[in-house]
Fold these 3 entries.
Entry 1:
Amino acid sequence: MCVTLFTDLPDLVILNVLRFLSHFDAIQAFYNINNNTDRILSLLIEGQCFSSMHYFRLSLFNFVCDHVLSRIGSKLTHLTLCDHQLALAYQKQILLYLSNVLSLHLINIIEITESDNYLSYFLRKQLKSLTIEFLSEHHFEAQAYVCEQFIFSKNSESLTHCHLINDHGIQIKHRILLPNVSIVNMTIQLRQLSDLHVLFDYLLNVKILNVKICRWTVEDIKYDYAKLPKTLSHLIEFSLQSDHALSFNQMIIIFRHLIHLEKLSFLYRNYDEHGIDINQLEIALTYLKNLTELNSIINFIYFNLNPKLTFENNIHFKQRWNIHTYKNLLYKNYVAYTQPFINVSYSISSDILLEDSSTDFSSITNLTLKTHTKQLSLLPIIRSLNSRFSSVTHLHIIDSFGIEDNHNDDIKLPKVYSFDASEIKLSNLFQILLRSMPNLTHLQVNLNVLIACDWKLLLANNKIKHLELKTNNLDQINPILFYFSSLEQLIVNTKKQSNQYKRIYIQIILDWFHRCSQLYTIHVKAHKLSDFLYIEHTESDKNMHVKYSNEIFTLWR
């Protein structure tokens, strides 16, 4: 009988196998195969598998830094790191070996101090692409440093693509900035409209701008929009998301002056007492002579809808841009969106739009589903997800009312691998949903809801690798972890819980590692960490890397 070993395969065949795996899975599976380590390492390098180092456990991270990066050299052009890895990567001076890193992605950047500023080491002049995910709402040092010392400064002469993420919005106004002439593509979450005005003034050559406004801005804010045709002469694609942060009139004024646009996308949600002025939108778009593509979602709640303030009153405009509308008279909700529906992420109320079966939502991969009334069951809607939302892989359920539903429905959602159940209030609904997702690897849930389930049976043979628990009772976590045999990353979020908790010792957290042999990263979040943990004598060593700030404590092994 002829037996072919994996290492007997030709290099090209192994490279093709690696392309079907994530970089992390490829390294975990193959980097240390018997005596073929050297050859496999060369193939992993050839496959660019070492660019996403944020998934690595501490031992693998050290191995790559000490023995692999020197062999990669200019072959590695992109690098992804987490906040807790920056200090160690700086100590090992990894960029000495990586002379051609042009793209950088930093995850969960929290805060920096003068003595702990590793960002300056990684923000190099040669960078062409930068993505940073900021974590904290309360610390602005890291955001200010990135904006003032790198993006809007003399150090950004090569930067062309920039992506800044903060769910609470990034404040640009009041920074000491220089105009940026290199960025052509920017995606950013901003605190309020005045921060967008700063971008308009300082991004001189931007061609593609994707913006989300996170906080409400007053109507009478002053800005000279008339100068935009000249100052934004290169802007051809603009996307604006406003979830109760802007009025419709504020959006119209912006669109009206971006006369060079070829593509416009916007998402608008608000309360509009009588409707929105569609004629003003049509007039604004007439100034955009080069506009060939419009993608929009408009969703507002009204009190007494004026038929003249709807798309139905302007059939020509509705037909030209292929706008589909739906109205729920019972809950006074109006939705209008362009077809085909191209958004990959969307948040939808359970009693609106889903009732309209005429539209295909197969483009959506990230869906947030909210309950809007106590009387409505979620399960019939969830049962329809496979047919209506056939591509959803991330599902977020917001059960505002704690709907009781005892139907033992046979629901199957095999494509969903990420489930945010942190805002589900009742254990029976959570239990039904969790059973419907056999391939789940990422889960967020309130620990009280999980414990109230038959969790020993529910968690049997689960595949969950990333778990986030909302709780302030850390003593309840240990017995649960026994049933997460595949767990690699654990987040304990106490921020939105009651402040009635006792201060604990780090040993309680260290015990979690003994429960889960695959667990290598733990994050504990708190409003004020020093009130929650005794961490004075916690230091890093070769087996455990420790990092903590005012709000988050990280153990990485």
Entry 2:
Amino acid sequence: MFSKSCLSWFSYQARLNKMKQKILIVEDEFIVANDLRIMLEKAGYKVCGIAPSVVKALELITTKEPDWILLDIFLQGDKTGIDLAGQLTGMGIPFIYISANTNQGILEAAKATLPYGFLVKPFREKDLMVMLDIARYRHEQNLKYNQPSQPSLHTQIEHIAEKQEPVADRLKQISAALHPVVPFDFLWITKSNPRTSTKDINMVRLADGKFSLIDNQSLLKAMNVSVRDFKTWNNSAINANGKSIFNGYDFRKLRMESPWTQALSDHYQLESALITEVERAGEWFQFVFFNQLSDLYTKVHTGIINQFSKSLEIIVDKVVYGKDPVSGTPLPASNIIEKPVITRVSDPENTQDFNGITGNSKLLHAAFKKLELVAPDDTSVLILGESGTGKEKIAQTIHKLSPRKNKPLVTVNCAALPLTLIESELFGHEKGSFTGANDKRIGKFEQADGGSIFLDEIGELPLEAQVKLLRVLQEKEIERLGGNYTKKINVRIITATNRNLEKEVAEGRFRLDLYYRLNVFPIELPALRDRKEDIPLLVDHFIAKYGKKGSSGVTQISDAALNELQDYDWPGNIRELEHLIERTMLLTEGDTITHIELPGAASANHFSSEDHFKVKTMEEMERDHILNVLKMCKGKVFGAGGAAEILNIPSTTLNSKIKKLGIKFEFVK
């Protein structure tokens, strides 16, 4: 009787808390909006209004003062939910998107405005309640840590603009940051008033997805356009007449009115454009995003561009028309590329080292700051970064700095879990629950009770397991396979992935509600190519590390060799750098590394093809090894003499690895 009373009291308190929450629905489809209202009121929430447009929503926000907003993206009028989202962020009002569109472009645009959730139409009542619970939890954590409301894209562009790197390199990085939210195949930045084309920026997206900066002279040569024609065609900026979106007929009309646009679109097969202008000290600058797809740009993209007008101003001020951070002189024209100055770290006392992750770059310090902030709490953490950036070390450090440090940290590699045993591995099973279950098994979550669980490569988890994981996160309880009771657990969740989870969601491989539940406190680890200023420090660290083992007499590296490391792109990140330094030390005679054998074209000027080698990541080596064994077995995976038997792993595990590593049958022939 006492237990039932307690449950009733807690249920009453939960309902009372919901009743205190006023929700405004911003949705232009009345049937959808009314269904939402009925669901919310049934669950105990108070709906303070329904708005079909941004204008009406702003009126109701002023008079009703809602606590939450459910926000559709496409609304009546010229403004979209994306436009309203920027104002809501400034007002400090949390919101959740509701939309029928979950393609990657929409998700990227939505993510940039920092919503607390994203609900996909059509949805069930249960989906709405789960998303609201997740959103409230994320909002509470956000308030607790007082995380900045500035969209991450702006912060990213701000950081790139401040880098001590050539203009071309920074513009390529900015293009890569902008492209997910405003996709383009060609970007033209020009001073529109007073008109000048001498410092035009022409950024083209290549077939491999990378970006290339082309100066006007090279562009004219590639297009077979004379300088005289260029001056005639490009003597004025595009006259947009107040429009920003040019698709279909509008783009064809734009081509007729602007000969330079026509020449560009003919050469690069461009079919649509998005135009915006920024003003700096009385001068106007035009950003023209072109795309090869027709009818691509929508009001959503206009809203995003409006949201990030400050980012465009930074690009103009600090990258295109400012001072070069390397030389201090006015920035060179786009065809001039200067080498960055390599600076040695001379003050190791100011270097932060978290569990073996070393560096002085702003991006890494930002990650360390987040780590220090969240580690003492129980908040879920999602660690994002490419392979080789040190995600597992960050997870270990979070656990070590938390009150759970004396309890276990259980690490699970989701990519290595056999498909048929995932549920058993994570949640355990009872004896006899399935064929071969001869004993009771304690799952990873139960092993981590009181401590932390680190789910590495969470993006590899199958959809069926994602449903179970979400329930565990929500209910804080597990049920063993074959069991008939649940067990409460107290576990901190730390996850990591090198995948783009927004893309996985858009393509239906990752649950949207689980993504928002895990992405409560993201820590992004920068790729090594984005923090090259740390390379000298890292090299010194690895030389000292392997020098202590006594296998080499190397104690330093020459400036020339260090320059080679700075010029390389580091697809394998810090792990690749460490392996390369270790190998180079073993091959070096004397105490100084004077040259580096880098993979690919970077080493072509120094070594013959016979001497060339590639430092491979662990994943690449694993792929090659499996591929060689499969060739030896003539593609046989199962049974006697099969690759699984030779590798001494279950055939299900081998199949998972074959799929993950992208090994196709034609490679085995």
Entry 3:
Amino acid sequence: MFVTDTSVLPTILIVDDQPSNILSIEQAISGLGELFFATSGAQALVIAESKKPDLVLLDIEMPGMNGYEVCQALREMPSMANSVIIFITSHTEPEKEIEALRLGGADFLHKPINHPIARARVSTHLSLQAKTKQLAASQQNLSDIAYNLPVFIAHWDHQFLCLYSNDREGAWIAGAVEQQIGQKIGQAFGERFHEQVEKVLPALQESGKVTFDTSMRSPRGFLRYVEVTILTQQCGEGEQACYLMLLNDITARKQAEDALRSEKERIRVMLESIADAVIATDADGIVTYMNPAAEQMTGRMASKYCGRAIEEVMPLYVGQTSRVLQNPIRVSLIEKRPVGMAIDTCLARADGERLNVEDAAAPIFDQYGDVIGAIIVFHDVSVARQLAIQMTHIVNHDSLTNLPNKVLLRDRTENAIEIAALHKHRVALVMLDLDNFKMINDSIGHSVGDLILQKVALRLKSAIGRGETVCRQGGDEFLILLHEVHDVDMVGQFCESVLATLSDVYLVGDKRFNLSASLGVSIYPDDAEDIEALYRHADSAMYTAKAAGKNKFSFFAHEIEEGLKTKHDLEMRMRAAIESNSFEVFYQPKYCTTEEKIIGAEALVRWRDETGGLISPLSFIPLAEETGLINRIGAFVLKTACKDCLAWQALSPNLKVAVNVSAIQFAQADFVCFINAMLRETGLSPSLLELEVTESVLVCNLENMLIVLKELRGMGVSIAIDDFGTGYSSLTYLKRFPINVLKIDQGFTRDMLRDESDHGIVEAIIRMAGSLKIDLVAEGVETKEIANELKRLGCTTMQGYYYGRPQPAKAFIASLVQSNE
């Protein structure tokens, strides 16, 4: 009885136009498989197409399509090629059974159905089919294994004609497998290979197996190395022997062997050529190899000393004494680890001279982890010692200025603090940062900046006394360590002398530079008890000096450190605000008194805190410039202002927007390209954009600034001088620079009606601007009386609370609409 696994039951299709017959057959074969039923030939074909039954019980006599026609249609289906078809008939005529067999039937069941016979026959056919499937699967597996083996397998007859090949892809013999069958071995692999096979035939006939290596060309033309194995087989009783041949591609192995030989030769040449001495020994410390450098250094030739103990070839001593040192080779062999030479090791040459040597020995292990020898590499230490001195200097000194670096300063500071603690005196650490040095690097170039730093280093070295240390810790920051401070007032005098020394003009080529510095002082043990606090507090004091106006020095106070923490927190919040787009742009109107309307606006950045309140620009703009964040903030303001100004043109054609530009932004090498790109992106005409700069920006780098401003004016962008009169005002630069507008600082306009000096300054600026044909804008106009007086003096464009406070874009549009009514 055929037993099946319920999870893989065979499928059986019963086809009969009589339901009673189907029921009878179902009862006979119940449990032998998953049963499907059809009452017509057409229905049977549909079910067969989808279910692909393993066995079909097919009635011959059916209306429409009879059983013969259904059988023929089933056999034409590729999926039914291996299915078993058993005809069911009530006829016993031999000719009908012959026709059924001719059409592909496998057996017959006669009506009425004999249940035991029907069950036995169906079970037998299903069992045979299952075994046939297993055999086919096994054959397919063997075929797949053969075809996918990484070796070539072929079966040849006694004349070496190919009977079988697994070279399905044609990797060994050109052409498909079908084309390879019947080829002679010489035709397949060439006559040279055939001749090699002929030579080994006697040995093959004697032992039944031969193996040899050879080379051959692949069908694609590349050379491969092959291991050939041929075995004799008996093809059949009384027939001549056949041959089974396996070809294994050993190209990689051959290439590895060649590479190993090449590597050995390369190592030999390298060892013969290097300047270091190399000696190899076996596991007993007997010398097996010496390179020429070892022969020269020891004064002993390999031809004479190979085969002797390492101690005879390389006797070692402690310095120039008679104390013998154990050779590192011996220690390495015993302890099975790399071993370095002891300090002050000397090698006694054959002529008695002693050389200072150093380096190390290491054991050699085989593949099993056993020590099979050792190698020692050594050289004359005098060169290494000189190099070590140089390296120590490099590690401890700044490469640009040759001053001690922070590493060396830390060591000296720790020593100074220890001595100060012992002798009850003070140590002072002065941090020095050059003011606005970044602008020199950005505008003139780092090469000039480096030359200036070198000059600063020379001046600082000349300013310190013997025993003091000045170091460069990076960029334009320097540290000065005053080792023994007995009078704090002397530290202040020292700082003043440093500021004076640095203030002299710096000449680099034909250029002159004026520099200043900010100094911060921290004193041990008054301000700090360790080096970290001493450094941190000097840094805090230095920032206090910068905040006080630069070119100053400041001593540390605890309030300074708290201020720096607050400053750091503000910087972090400002970075977060940039990422979250928390900045806004407000606009303050510029009013023309002759036209009696708004003719422009100044864009002003605003920042709201977490509660919605506004943070004063005076709190974050200086920090933004110091940290470089002003570039990102400035780009946001410029882009927003350009977009808003473009939108205003529908309300007030030719209305301009003014945007403040810091010195940091101007120092960017691609500033002009940046402005041009922003105008193209927003679509704003250059004639509607006005850039406001302070006088300090202009005088920072006159030549470079002149080029930038001319390029901007060439684009059509207007240039305004902000806060005019508060900086280094000069008729010379007003004449040279392409300036469109002067903005009179609000410090003069607010008190001009009460202070004669301020009134005189405003009047002089207005007359000067008229003479130079430069437009004017008066800032800080807060009353009608001030506006009338300015208008009387000749200034007609004004900006201030009298005409409007800085306001968001929507509020400014409302003001603009009202102004145009």
